[in-house]
Amino acid sequence: MTGTLAEKPDWRPVRHFEANALLTGGPDCPDNLPLRDLVARSEYLKIVFEGHTDASDPHPQYATDVDIKLLAAGVDGLQASKFSVSGGDLQGDLGLRGTRDRVTALGNVAGAVTIDASAGSTFTATATGAATWTFTGRPPAGQCRYVELRLVNGGAFTQTFPAGSVFSGGDRSLTAAGVDKLIVMLTADSTDISIVRGLA
Question: Where are the domains of the chain?
Answer without folding.
Answer: 1-61, 103-199
